[in-house]
Specification:
The complex is a heterodimer. In chain A, strand 6 and strand 7 form a beta hairpin. Chain A is of the alpha+beta class. Chain A is globular. Helices cover 66% and strands 1% of the residues of chain B. Classes of the chains: A alpha+beta, B mainly alpha.
Amino acid sequence: MKFKDVFSIIGPAMVGPSSSHTAGAVRLGRIARQLFGKQPEKAAVTFYGSFAETYQGHGTDIAVAGGLLNFDTDDKKIPNSLNIAKNNGINLIFSKETGSHLHPNTARLCLSAASRHLNVTGSSIGGGNVQIVNINGFDVSFTGLYPTLVITYRDRPGMVAEISGLLWEKQVNISHMEVDRKGRSGEAMMVMEIDDPLPEEVVSKIGSVSGTESVRKVDITKGVLS
Amino acid sequence: MRFQTIEELVTLGEQENKSIADLMIEEQSSETGRTPTEEFSQMKDLYGVMKNAVRKGLTEDTTSKNGLTGKDAQRVRHYTASHDPIAGEHAAKAMTYALAVSEVNASMGKIVATPTAGSCGVIPGVFVSAQERHQWPDEKMVQGLFCAGALGYVIANNSFVSGAEGGCQAEIGSAVGMAAGAIAELNDASPREVSHAVGMSLKNMLGLICDPVAGLVEVPCIVRNGFGAVTALTAADMARAGMKSVIPADEVITTMFDIGNAMSSDYKETARGGLAQTPTGKAMMDNIFGRG
């Protein structure tokens, strides 16, 4: 189901004017920020479809900037987020492209700082709900409605078992999971939506599993499900 | 959730002798693992945001950034205070409050997406005016929001709730369907009557395109929220009177999906068609963004 609970219909509480173009855009920016793990120095944002046509009118650029600052959808600072981002040293570049194969409200965010880079593509599917569809070339599909773990690793037998075992030890349930890889024994990505917030120690344990390259925790559920 | 269609929702309500609101609270609680009290409390916070948005729209400056809209709710309120409104007192109040919330949204104020920000005025307009009229406690209104949420959950998963995907029918249309069913249930309608209120009101919204002038959630979005609130009231009255939606609500929802898919993207929030491309609409866009 695209919409999983009552608060994806009645909610979120948000700063206007558009749930797809403002609240959804805040969440796309915020998820990208959390996947990056810290504030980026540069963010190049490409808008597609209806986002590209109307992003200025809806304040989509402002909203994405707010998300990159890790703001929630109802943060009263959102209207000033372009200035705040600038003052915090984030170099923001907005552009638009056509991409008819994509959902009509889609953005690609390319974040960088020093030698680190991250590409995230996500769509705003209505009512402030979002779907992340690609991270650094890996096809994914998650909404941010649940705490989410995104792990990059070198593919090998037993990886899924070891990591899910660590969650099981803490009685953390996985509600949705997917893996994608660029080739056998190559670079791979695991995405797990979980039912409860994850203790920090589990995150660091996963980080020390042989073959793990990075572990990122995305949690934008404040005001969503908890 | 144990229901994916309006019919399943009605059947569950009839079999278990429960209101749609109570069913939704139970289902939500089992989905999230939290207690019904926690779910209720989160919804109560959201209702607080809605009431606050009504107040703000009636008392503060809601002129939008581009100056296109603002303070119409206050104009209407001023008028209804000194005249006998043509639509009648209660309908006029629902309409006024819906405009107020929608103007708060357009001026980047805080609202609740119900189901979207573009349609955020309809449910608060209907709910807050009804609460004042009947002196209902907040708890009853929060129950009503769970009913609206259950109906919206079915609509959203079987069709869509964004203008970019399905046109305005998906936004204001969904909000009107949700508000109609919920206000009917708040007035003691059975689950079956609720389904007729949803079906009849949604039928009235089919085909409505999303054509925001300059791409802004202002023209015609704000007035459509005002109209939407009144439509919801009329549908609830029809259903309470025993009128039936000849085409069942689930089939109307599927039809909305089909119409939305057939709709040209010019009419899906891109500002490339409809009112956005009228001479006046284009001139406004030129003024605001320096482009046509």
